[in-house]
Description:
Blueprint: H1 3-18, H2 21-28, H3 32-46, E1 51-53, E2 58-60, H4 62-86, E3 94-100, H5 103-120, E4 124-130, E5 144-148, E6 157-170, H6 172-177, E7 192-194, E8 199-204, E9 207-212, E10 216-218, H7 222-230, E11 235-239, H8 240-248, E12 253-255, E13 261-269, H9 271-274, H10 277-298
Parallel strand pairs: 3-4, 3-5, 7-10, 7-11
Antiparallel strand pairs: 1-2, 5-13, 6-11, 6-12, 6-13, 8-9
Amino acid sequence: MNNIYWNGLRSFLAVAEHGSFTLASDETGLSKASLSQQVSQLEAHLDVQLLYRTTRKLRLTEIGERYYEMCKTGVKQIQDASDLASQATDSLTGSIKMNAVGGMIGEDLIAPLVIQYQKENPGIEVKLDFSSIRVDLLESDYDLVLRMGDLEDSTLIARKLHTITTRYVASPSFVKAHPKIKHPSDLKKLAFISGSVQDWIFVRADEEVVVQADSGFQISNGRVMCRAACAGLGIARLSDVYTDSAIKHGDLTEVLAGWNQTTPLWLVSPPTRHQLHRVRELMNFLASNFGRLYQEILR
């Protein structure tokens, strides 16, 4: 594989992934003209058209789509092998791409620890991304992902970080005005403070109750939901990282305590990426320090 072919292949993959020469240029640092030239040289070498180009739109041809899917897997395996070979020593160098949920878990727990890790290991460059999208680790380029809930893919390397508790809370004044909250069904006529989850599922022993929290104040932000609950706007469903400090200070009251839920937090890595010394060390660092920082926030 000569350099022209290899450069063209990498340029093609970048353009196909981002859907435009402009975005691919921003990602790779190559000019749009250089990317276009390298892709054209690749097409000439293969004697096939991989892209349809117009002044307004760019899309893959049918053969281009198949070529992209096959090459993407192969190039990723080559990159993984190169990374593994470069980590033959114990030195901590290179980049780590990590995905985590946002909110307090990402911003107040994961981010400070990642910052501390990179400060202690200046040869490491962490690329931290916050999103609630459940990425496919085996298909993505992430080295490490924070996941909530049960894990489905047994081929991934997983390390348990913590177990969070989801509580149902309201202000003391709201609870005083509605003293008969003894069962989830008692919530149906009350005001809700809800985020992205509006089907509140309560499970205790063999009983399951579903309450539609589709009315009241809605905002997909845990901090604002907590503030709204403290202000007396209604019942909120929040994890303990948001609620416990406010409960201890008398700003919130937990209701339906026997119906709270627990959810495990995991650090997950693809097997090929977990072999990298830098990824394993970041995973160990987060696992060793996450619980301590979590407890500090609950105070």
